[in-house]
């Protein structure tokens, strides 16, 4: 049996001057209108949710509208939403429940909100009689869906540029990171949970464990740059150790940090690994030899040759431990450019190149 479609309320359309009415204009308390109880929030996405509630039958036939008060949880005061032109008390016609609420002007991914509801009856003079507010209910919006991530992927592909050859993945850190007292058991770089840098709705932030590597090269030398934002010591490892026929690759994010530089996060996960299981169904999978960011080609002798996109900074997240003995650590001669660090960096919500229309 097909589930009945819920009536949808487009929050973006519920603004003064666009057929909506502010819940603060011309209202008066009324006895006899039922107060919404047991608010239920279901089918939550990054920019929509379904809402329903219970209410007494007495006075239900008088209801013409619902007033919805939606606020970010961090901002508990009503009608103080960050966008100055958008009220949070909104008027929706009384439609059958559950009712779908959507609108990227209001809802951002991975954000905690509070919602409360009133029932209302529009009077002949245009004013409203209203019930008391329901209890406040809290919920959190979801990550980007695969549809949204594919939109982000298409934007990243549009600026990736031509492909340049490379031979190694590398990771820069302070000396202490590589010179800890390591026994045979701990000669490995271990995955850690990704921070909250980049797009707010990326499913990997705060959830997927991995180790970040770079592979970008200098155009004039074909080698890794000598400057780094992360430290003067560099671990280098042959590209085919991490990226080969048994490695699956996924698109994770595309963002900038109020600069002209754009970053693409790719996830490399050995087939059948824990990281691979996490990415399947959550992230767009990329063809290892046919994508715009990171590829390999098998040569006649069976070896692999590698290329990376020129016009984006690639952050490659490898999901499994990496044996330090498979590479080498050395000091680089360049500067430590901390301004280029992406640790917990916030995405520029105004950039037209790397944002999609479902919140930042």
TrEMBL record:
Ranges where the record places region Disordered: 1-34
InterPro entries reported in the protein's UniProt record: FN3_dom (IPR003961), FN3_sf (IPR036116), Ig-like_fold (IPR013783), PHYHIP/PHYHIPL (IPR042868), PHYIP/PHIPL_C (IPR045545)
Pfam families: fn3, PHYHIP_C
A Gene Ontology cellular-component term: cytoplasm
Segments forming domain Fibronectin type-III: 35-144
Entry superkingdom: Eukaryota
Stated role: May play a role in the development of the central system.
Family per record: Belongs to the PHYHIP family.
Protein name: Fibronectin type-III domain-containing protein
GN (gene name): LOC116324057
């Amino acid at each position: 049996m097909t589930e009945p479609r819920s009536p949808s309320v487009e929050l973006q359309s519920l603004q003064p001057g666009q057929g909506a009415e502010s819940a603060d204009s011309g209202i008066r308390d009324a006895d006899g209108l039922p107060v919404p109880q047991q608010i239920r929030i279901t089918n939550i996405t990054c920019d929509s949710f379904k809402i329903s509630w219970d209410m007494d039958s007495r006075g239900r036939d008088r209801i013409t509208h619902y007033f919805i008060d939606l606020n970010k949880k961090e901002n508990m005061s009503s009608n103080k939403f960050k966008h100055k032109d958008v009220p949070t008390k909104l008027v929706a016609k009384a439609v059958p429940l559950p009712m779908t609420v959507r609108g990227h002007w209001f809802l951002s991914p991975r954000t905690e909100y509070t919602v409360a509801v009133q029932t209302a009856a529009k009077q002949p003079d245009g004013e409203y009689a209203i019930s008391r507010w329901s209890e406040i209910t809290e919920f959190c919006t979801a990550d980007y869906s695969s549809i949204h991530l594919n939109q982000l992927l298409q934007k990243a592909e549009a600026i990736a540029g031509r492909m340049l050859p490379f031979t190694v993945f590398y990771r820069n850190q302070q000396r202490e990171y590589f010179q800890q007292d390591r026994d045979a058991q701990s000669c490995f770089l271990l995955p850690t949970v990704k921070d909250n840098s980049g797009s707010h709705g990326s499913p990997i932030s705060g959830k997927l464990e991995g180790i970040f590597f770079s592979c970008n090269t200098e155009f004039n030398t074909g080698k890794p740059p000598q400057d780094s934002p992360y430290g003067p010591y560099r671990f280098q490892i042959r590209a085919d150790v991490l990226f080969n026929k048994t490695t699956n690759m996924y698109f994770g994010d595309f963002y900038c940090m109020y600069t002209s530089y754009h970053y693409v996060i790719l996830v490399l996960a050995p087939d059948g690994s824990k990281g691979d299981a996490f990415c399947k169904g959550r992230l767009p999978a990329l063809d290892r030899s046919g994508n715009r960011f990171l590829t390999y080609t098998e040569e006649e002798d069976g070896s692999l040759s590698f290329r990376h996109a020129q016009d984006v900074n690639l952050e490659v997240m490898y999901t499994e431990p990496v044996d330090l003995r498979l590479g080498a650590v050395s000091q680089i001669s360049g500067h430590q450019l901390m301004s280029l660090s992406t640790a917990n960096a916030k995405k520029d919500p105004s950039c037209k190149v790397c944002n999609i229309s479902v919140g930042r």
